Automatic annotation (TrEMBL):
Enzyme class: transferase
Record's subunit section: Homodimer.
Parent-protein start and end of this portion: 244 to 611 of 611
Reactions catalysed according to its record: D-fructose 6-phosphate + L-glutamine = D-glucosamine 6-phosphate + L-glutamate
Gene: glmS
Keywords of the record: Aminotransferase, Cytoplasm, Glutamine amidotransferase, Repeat, Transferase
GO molecular function: carbohydrate derivative binding; glutamine-fructose-6-phosphate transaminase (isomerizing) activity
Gene Ontology cellular component terms for the protein in this record: cytosol
SIS domain: residues covered: 45-185, 217-358
Protein role: Catalyzes the first step in hexosamine metabolism, converting fructose-6P into glucosamine-6P using glutamine as a nitrogen source.
Superkingdom of source: Bacteria
GO aspect biological process, one term: carbohydrate metabolic process
Enzyme Commission designation: 2.6.1.16
The protein, known as: Glutamine--fructose-6-phosphate aminotransferase [isomerizing]
Organism name: Beggiatoa alba B18LD
């Protein structure tokens, strides 16, 4: 066990640091001439992806958060309507079937009972063809779906999912590109996105260098009972994933909000005892997010801002800025995930929890 972890104290840390390699594996052999190969989705993909006019994503936990990111991509880039739902709700809701909707089930293990049952329910109801985005080739989900796109993250031992999530995101971006190409909505953009995908391993390697800085920041969370994570747009689900990581392994209550909803409740909770983490890339929503953060600041909240550049706000004792550097907008959600994983890890380490096997949680939930 110690051998497999190598120099790392926990599997989770090892798996965080494996991400540059894992993402390179995800892309391996799936790109040609700056285009995503449709064959990556299986031999039948060419035919099965015909007449897809909508996407229904189904998943649980961290995999569900990957699906939420994909909705922003699929609607804005491939211009197809996309719904995302947790499997345990989808399977009992009696959703209206759309035979032209591609059903995308995302699961690291491929054995999550609700996700499997939801796939069978979607088939029974008459939804369109299904695609499993999965990390275990021989899993029940991979066998049940019409198409499979393996994430190729390698075995993930830590209960809190890390490399499975970022490789799922990359697979979903590949899917977006393929659907967008078919729908005639991305043309020249495909090259730009594919090049950004290729740059991911190097970009993530640089972001892992934030480890020491984040280790220091983690000290400021260790004695807190609550935290708020804020994001907007495609980075809102990344804030949700950051909050989930923190609660899973540090047992600190963490909640994520789309920053535009601050005034509708969470602002009442803001005080010096509740750190506020903001995922704040320089995208079209940054100005709006900044004004949300000013409100937190004005109410005495302690801010930790993850941003491309320090210039986003004046730093102070109450405003800590963690600089990620320039990042292409299409891969930005993947990049911003890394420092949030490190934050959760270091907070848990200080609190002395069982990082790889948090209490009450299982790696794979195979019963309802
Ligand atoms: C459990 C794990 C999570 C995971 C979720 C879904 O809750 O602890 O890390 O995200 O199940 O698992 P799946 O294998 O379907 O992605």
């Amino acid at each position: 066990d110690a051998v497999e972890r190598g120099e790392f104290r926990h599997y989770m840390l090892k798996e965080i640091f494996e991400q540059p390699h894992a993402l390179a594996e995800t892309l391996e052999g799936r790109i040609h001439n700056d285009q995503i190969l449709e064959a990556a989705f299986g031999a039948n993909a060419h035919h099965l992806l015909d007449e897809i006019y909508a996407v229904q994503i189904i998943a649980c936990g961290t995999s569900y958060h990957a699906g939420l990111v994909a909705r922003y991509w699929i609607e804005s880039l491939a211009k197809l309507p996309c719904s995302v739902e947790v499997a345990s709700e989808f399977r009992y809701r009696q959703p209206l079937p759309n035979p032209n909707a591609l059903v995308v089930c995302i699961s690291q293990s491929g054995e999550t009972a609700d996700t499997l049952a939801a796939l069978h329910e979607a088939k029974r109801l008459g939804f369109g063809p299904s695609l499993a985005i999965c990390n275990v080739p021989e899993s029940a989900l991979a066998r049940a779906a019409d198409m499979v796109l393996m994430t190729r993250a390698g075995p993930e031992i830590g209960v809190a999912s890390t490399k499975a999530f970022t490789t799922q995101l990359l697979c979903l971006l590949m899917l977006t590109v393929v659907l967008g190409r078919r729908n005639g909505t991305i043309s020249e953009l495909e090259k730009v996105i594919v090049r950004a995908m290729r740059s991911l391993p190097d970009q993530l390697q640089k972001l892992l260098e934030l480890n020491q800085e984040i280790k220091q920041i983690a000290e400021e969370f260790a004695d807190k009972h609550h935290t708020l994570f804020l994001g907007r747009g495609v980075h809102y689900p990344i804030a949700m994933e950051g909050a989930l990581k923190l609660k899973e392994i540090s047992y600190i209550h963490a909640e994520a909000y789309p920053a535009g909803e601050l005034k509708h409740g969470p602002l009442a909770l803001v005080d010096a005892d509740m750190p506020v983490v903001a995922v704040a890339p320089n995208d079209t929503l940054q100005e709006k997010l900044k004004s949300n953060l000013e409100e937190v600041h004005a109410r005495g909240g302690q801010l930790f801002i993850f941003a491309n550049h320090r210039a986003i706000m004046q730093g102070s004792d109450f405003v800590k800025i963690i600089e990620l550097g320039e990042i292409n907008e299409y891969i930005s959600p993947i990049a911003y995930t890394i420092p949030l994983q490190l934050l959760a890890y270091h907070v848990a380490l200080i609190r002395g929890t069982d990082v790889d096997k948090p209490r009450n949680l299982a790696k794979s939930v195979t019963v309802e």
